Amino acid sequence: MRTVEVTLEGRVQRVGMRNFVRRLAEKHRITGYVENLDDGSVRIVARGDETELALFLRKVKKGSLAVKLSGGKITRIIEQSSQELEFRGFEKR
Question: I need a surface site. Which of 66, 79, 82, 93 has the fewest CB within 10 A?
Answer without folding.
Answer: 93
